[in-house]
Write a structure and sequence with these properties.
The complex is a heterodimer of chains A (189) and B (375). With 189 residues, chain A is mainly alpha-helical. In chain A, 71% of the residues lie in helices and 0% in strands. In chain B, strand 15, helix 11 and strand 16 form a beta-alpha-beta unit. In chain B, helix 7 packs across helix 12. Classes of the chains: A mainly alpha (189), B alpha/beta (375).
């Protein structure tokens, strides 16, 4: 009887060990995915601000629009605390510029304009995607970390609790997504 | 002279630069000059006859708050048409580094251009990003004016070049007499504040903290606030029992603005920064209101180092409360300050200020010909 009990206990302990290390491995993979998503988001934001600066200094736009965009892009790049706010402000500046009447038509025929605008729209869309994937990763990681097993055995180690990155990242004015979707086909969702 | 003035901020929302441009335009017309102003405004907006609308302004984040600006090729072509129709002897742009009409005007015009800088800009790094874009448009400006020392320093440090110092003007006569608002100032003491409630640099939170300290031993003390912003956000900063003693007027007409200044025992200017001249102070001085102001450099200068109004340490609510309490308890001191302010404000009357501005025009215009459209 005692031998059987010992065996059962050993088996249970071994199974628990396997289970816990499997959960820890899963959490580790989630953190790795989160890190990758964070790098992608950072890269997308940097690409958007540097493309904005490039457009601003290209001479394609009038000086007022250029200064507006250059300052917003610069603020977005250099704001360390308050980055969400500065990136949202950059989005709003871009949206104000892009939603001017006949904006594309007036720029048509200017050397390099079409390429820069397309590049900037694609960079903005990348921000939208990267942020979505990053926030997905944050949600998954947070959920996994909050399970009792993860909390009791501190499976997350010393990795900081991830936070959502919330910014306004739509180039289309709120409520007009349907109406203007044809102009900006990539900006869906 | 035929003078074209460019205002970069929308005409439909009151603000320091707009007030300056309209005051200058009227003073110049009083002197017999022909004046036209172009400003962002809706084509259907009701405007004074001398203002030409440049189209609706777009709200964008700029310089830490939301500004209503006009930019883009359509705005530029409106400016071009206005220049052609105006055939000006001199073009006077305001705040030309702001991404709006004034910068566009420098871009499309040639000839005698005078520029006035209003705001002090501490953001040298951001300006650096825009520097090359600004440089080619701003190098056409042949005479610079700054409304205050802080604005002039901005110019020297960030844009290169120097400026003549000509202060902001005010129509002193319009402020001297006005009926106080009904029930004010009352007998228990009234503090006043003028400015946007939701702009942290205007410092309303400092004043609310000071009011809360003072209200404890002054059961009838009231606070009168005029300016844009969310009333709930303001009242949340005051303990519940004091809330009915804070009177929020919201955005007021020019006439009520002056009546409001005549309705207070002590006018408070708790601004924490970003203020290069202190227009509200000059308005309060012209109204004969005793003043307590934060010790910003610009305020110190306007108030003659404290002679024409009390100064307190910037951001220090207890300091503001102490200074305001001293004034409330000393009517003789209030009268002395008000008299000193009324005398000091004369130098800011538009009749004096506009004369100095015309001298700048005369220095620039003959050598540079007429204003023409460059592109």
């Amino acid at each position: 009887m005692t031998a059987l009990t010992v065996i059962i206990v050993l088996v249970v302990v071994a199974m628990m060990g396997v289970y816990i290390s499997w959960r820890a491995g899963r959490l580790d993979r989630l953190h790795a995915r989160l890190e990758a998503a964070r790098f992608a988001l950072d890269a997308a934001l940097l690409r958007r601000s540097s493309t904005t600066l490039e457009l601003a200094s290209s001479g394609v736009l009038d000086p007022a629009t250029s200064v507006l965009l250059a300052e917003a892009a610069h603020d977005a790049r250099s704001a360390q605390p308050g980055r969400e706010l500065a990136e949202s402000d950059l989005t709003r500046a871009l949206r104000a510029v892009f939603s001017q009447p006949d904006f594309r038509a007036l720029l048509a025929g200017r050397e390099g304009a079409e390429e820069l605008l397309t590049e900037l729209e694609s960079a903005s869309h990348q921000v939208f995607l990267a942020r979505k994937f990053y926030n997905d990763a944050v949600a998954a990681t947070q959920a996994a970390r909050q399970r009792w097993l993860a909390r009791i055995f501190r499976l997350a180690g010393r990795a900081p609790n991830p936070e959502f990155f919330e910014i306004d990242d739509s180039l289309v004015p709120a409520g007009e997504a349907g109406a203007r979707g044809a102009d900006l086909p990539h900006l869906t969702g | 002279m035929r003078i074209g003035l460019v205002c970069p901020y929308t005409w439909e929302v009151p603000g320091g630069v707009r007030e300056h441009v309209s005051g200058l335009a009227e003073a110049l017309m009083d002197m017999g000059h022909e004046v036209s102003v172009i400003a962002p405004a809706d084509d259907e907006a009701v405007l004074p006859p001398y203002v030409v609308p440049a189209g609706r302004a777009v709200p964008v984040p700029y310089n830490g708050s939301v500004a209503r600006l006009a930019f883009g090729f359509l705005s530029a072509s409106r400016v071009r048409r206005w220049l052609k129709d105006g055939d000006f002897d001199v073009l006077h742009v305001h705040e030309p580094a702001a991404p709006s009409l004034s910068l566009l005007a420098c871009w499309v015009a040639d000839g005698p251009i005078v520029a006035t800088v209003h705001a002090a800009m501490p953001r040298s790094r951001a300006l650096h990003a825009a520097q090359p874009i600004l440089a080619s448009a701003l190098e056409k400006i042949s005479g610079w004016i700054a409304v205050a020392e802080a604005a002039r320093n901005t110019l020297v440090e960030h844009l290169g070049g120097d400026a003549v110092l000509i202060p902001n003007g005010v129509h002193v006569g319009r402020y001297e007499k006005a009926e106080p608002l009904p029930g004010f100032p009352g007998t228990g003491g009234t503090l006043g504040f003028l400015g946007r409630m939701d702009e942290p640099r205007k410092g309303l939170d400092v004043l609310l903290a000071a009011f809360t300290m003072m209200a404890a031993d002054r059961p009838d003390l009231r606070l009168l606030v005029a300016g844009r912003g969310d009333p709930d956000e303001v009242l949340d900063q005051v303990p519940r029992p004091l809330r009915d003693r804070v009177v929020l007027l919201g955005q007021v007409s020019d006439a009520d603005r002056i009546r409001m200044l005549h309705s207070v025992d002590v006018f408070c200017a708790p601004n924490t920064g970003g203020e290069s001249f202190g227009y509200v102070l000059v308005e309060a001085m012209a109204s004969g209101a005793p003043i307590v102001a934060s010790d910003l450099e610009a305020f110190r200068q306007v108030l003659h180092g404290g002679e024409a109004g009390e100064l307190f340490e910037n951001g220090n609510a207890a300091g503001l409360a102490a200074a305001a309490a001293r004034l409330l308890d000393d009517p003789a001191r209030r009268a002395t300050l008000a008299a000193a302010a009324s005398a000091a404000v004369r130098e800011f009357d538009w009749s004096v200020v506009a004369r100095d501005v015309v001298q700048v025009y005369q220095a620039v215009a003959p050598a540079a010909g007429r204003v023409a459209v460059a592109l």
